[in-house]
Amino acid sequence: MPRKRAGTRTRSRTPMGVAAEPLPLPRVLAPEAHGPEHVAVDAEGRILTGTADGAVRRLTLSPDHELVRSEVLAHTGGRPLGLVPCPDGGLLVCDARRGLLRVGPDDGSVRVVADEVAGSPLRFCSNVATAADGTVYFTVSSRRHGLEDWLGDILENTATGQLLRLRPGGRPEVVLDGLRFANGVALAADESYVAVVESGAYRISRLWLTGRRAGTRDLLLRDLPGFPDNLTRGPDGVIWVAIAAPREPALDLLHRAPGPLRRVAVPVATRLRPRPRRTVRALAIAPDGRVVRHLVRRRTPYRMATSVCALGDLLVMGSLIERGIAICALPPPREATGAAQSLCHIPGRISVRRQGAPPSGSWGSVRSQGAGAPSWRSHMGVSATPREGAPPSGSWGSVPGVARPAGDMTQALIPSRSSSRGSDAAGAGWSASTAAPRTPPR
């Protein structure tokens, strides 16, 4: 078989790099909480969420994981989405209609922290994360569509999302623009970078904050097996990624179509609004950027899990559309076998291949960071090769005003009328990136 020439672009549909682990059947708690889009855990182990009626709720579980208390902390007067606890017991809340809010720790008072950026109103504030020095990073999913028309933005692929930064005593500023439905946001445990989900592009971008890469942007994960949503970082530094729905080839074709045709398709698709598939999926990213868990449950009554977080030995899930949060036991990590598919983390951009696939030499040479760069295998056990045809990190430029690579076709969310088993049986291919800075121009 002829060897593939280095530099030739391939559209990978390889199996998942980390072997999928089955999730136990989720159990629903607090069904009065309709649409708990994001879930977080406070310092005392209580679950926090915002719901469709504008309430910010706090749920307390017993040691045997039964709900013992459900209380409303505040009403935002809008639609709360992402939220994060503050050190003083208060909360920062992204409200899709009112902007970035703060809920007081004692009286449930609600104060607007930011409702505009550069003179423009915050139309669709989505998710938030805070740094140790009080700096706040938060996302605007779209500047064209509101929450009620989030599906239209995904289908149209407007690329009008933003990542904003608010320093203590300052004003909101745009640090990343042109994002494809900006969604979840999380800081690395050492705050060396901030990760932001681009749901419409099936990837997680990374903005470096410290070191020689500060101010540059690259990809933390790309070609994910579904529609990534919220990010939640646990006390162990692991970032959990909720995959709200599997990829759909029909929407890949739509995203390849010209803009006018995509806009025509939006009202048709939004009228049909098929029900999301009965699949729950979550990924866990270690502090060093490795994907270490891939958890899947199919044929579950709890649909469109838009957020996941770990609470001890539990996995807690929230959904934009369901009633109540869902919990299930968090399976212990499963040791990989020689037959398992897994992911190797090496310097440079990488992609995943099956054990027994052609040796890495036939896929082109690995681009290394240098003689002193670390090189190691994930404990999940695998081999990997550089992703051919991937844009070098230097081509992304500095922030703001980042140039996006051309030809990066993506998929969207809504299922086709065909059976769900075929496209979701093994999961679409994905790859991770840990690219070091390269000297532009390329």
UniProtKB/TrEMBL annotation:
Ranges of biased composition (kind: Low complexity): 416-436
Region annotation (Disordered) ranges: 352-442
PANTHER family named among the record's database cross-references: ADIPOCYTE PLASMA MEMBRANE-ASSOCIATED PROTEIN HEMOMUCIN-RELATED (PTHR10426:SF88), STRICTOSIDINE SYNTHASE-RELATED (PTHR10426)
Annotated source species: Streptomyces iranensis
Coiled coil: none
Domain of life of the source: Bacteria
Keyword Glycoprotein: yes
Name of this protein: Sugar lactone lactonase YvrE
Similarity comment: family membership: Belongs to the strictosidine synthase family.
Domain Strictosidine synthase conserved region: 133-211
Keyword Glycoprotein belongs to the record: yes
One Pfam family from the record: SSL_N
Keywords of this entry: Glycoprotein, Phosphoprotein
InterPro entries (UniProt xref): 6-blade_b-propeller_TolB-like, Strictosidine_synth_cons-reg
